[in-house]
Amino acid sequence: MKTKLIGSIDRITEHTAYFILNDDAHELRFPVDVLPVGADEGMAFTITIQRNLQEEERLRQEIAALRDELAAKQ
Question: What percent of the chain has pLDDT over 90?
């Protein structure tokens, strides 16, 4: 399932871009380095949110390994 959000860049600081969603009730912050080249204040974007099952599994494995490591130290 995908969710699409539409909003525009309200302002950009040294490290952060602030997006105002079209509902005018929510603000999202993103690191400047993830913006497309040439992105600037006032530009509109569609932001897609999609579940990443591969990353979830990688994180599960990483956490399990850390738990095993901690258990072995006890």
Answer: 89
